[in-house]
Amino acid sequence: MAAAAAAAAHVLVFPFPLQGHINCMLPFATALAAAGVLVTFLHSDHNLRRLGPASTPDGPHSQRLRFLSVPDGLPDNDPRSVGGLLELVESLQAVASVAFRALLASLLSTKSPSRADHHDAADSGSGFPPVSCVVADGYLPWAIDVADELAVPVLAFHTSSACSILAFLSAPRLFELGDLPFPAGGDLDEPVHGVPGMESFLRRRDLPSSFRRAGEHGVNPRLRVLVKDTSRSSGKARALIFNTADSLERSALAHIAPHMRDVFAVGPLHAMFPAAAIAKSLWREDDGCVAWLDGQADRSVVYVSLGSLAVMSHEQFTEFLSGLVAAGYPFLWVLRPDMVGASQDAVFQEVARATGDGDQARVVAWAPQRDVLRHRAVGCFLTHAGWNSILEAVLEGVPMVCWPFFADQQINSRFVGAVWRNGLDMKDVCERAVVEKTVREAMESDETRQSAEALAEQVKRDIADGGSSAMEFKRLVSFIRELSS
Ligand code: UDP
To answer: EC annotation (predicted)?
Structure first.
């Protein structure tokens, strides 16, 4: 019995401790557990506290999934939003890496970690054999290094799009070709030639935001380090896992594969393996907005959400608000408490005033986004083009208007506007007239809706039994079992 347990695959899944990464890697962990693999899912202490008791795994596979946590090194009242992202990255590297090394070392022995050392929400650790494989977020290169040093097979999980990772991996070539750095004040509409497969449509403004900063201000040494670290650790990993589908990113995946030991495209995971029974939202979802949607006509509502990290200036907020009101459709807007400089009450009141205190708008601090996008009343999605949001909208066939903010969002939104054509890219412009015009177009264009619906069908085929993502997930489970034996 003990020998059989010791031979079982036990995977430590470690996402970057932010909402978007959890939303993607939690369904992955659930899926592994459903496939019979034992899984330890590693949160930050802060996030596990925020998720509360409902984060305890429940449901048929709960015996095979447990949660542990490590400190992220920041005070509890730190907002961990985009303004402080660099602090979070640095603090994780300084503090979480040490705790992670100690935890992994202890999980490699048969002895389970003690409660005193690590917060164990499920407390089901006693039956777990030693960890046989680590799946670490690609944005935690040090976690990949630690696993490698402790001689545990490690896979890198990229929660962003494959096209953005290909752009990252192409950085040395971009510098070589002179695509980077951009000349100061140079034209952002100039084409970029150094990312394979994207030569016909990629412009400077579509590159990930850190490239843009490097372009505008000369070669940013931090970018060089980040690019080097991501590429180095991805190369070290036994495989890269992407939350994407063949029909979305076939070309990018094909260009990445020759440079890696193996590549798996297993998404969109949220639709394949919903982790509904486990709390995943760091904010409390406002369920009232679904009841509000119930009272609206089919495809009449604009859903507006800029994800879990983006913040906007008061001026940008005002431009959005004026454009949305002028477009004339009812809208549901997620405005997190830390999102606009002014107090949340003041912001909510401004929306009420602008809409004449009528029923045109509903504002919430956090929505059950997947339920909202699935709702018959939603006609389009004004989004920051975060990868989870894109995948969620793609699956529901909802046309998008993209206002990308940072990281991979710039390149994702180019794919929406120019490759998949399931939405419009409002990149770099935040003016009321443009908001009004693009929202109208997304709501009314038959062509955009047809593209969105056709893409949804294709991706649904990828995740159905026998589809590319479903087959890749099976191959991945076998791969993990082999690494674990
Ligand atoms: N989300 C949500 N409710 C909201 C806003 C966002 O549940 O009101 C979820 C959304 O469904 C997605 C995630 O938060 O899964 C945001 O991830 P994404 O990659 O789109 O953007 P990020 O927050 O990482 O910038």
So the answer is: 2.4.1.-
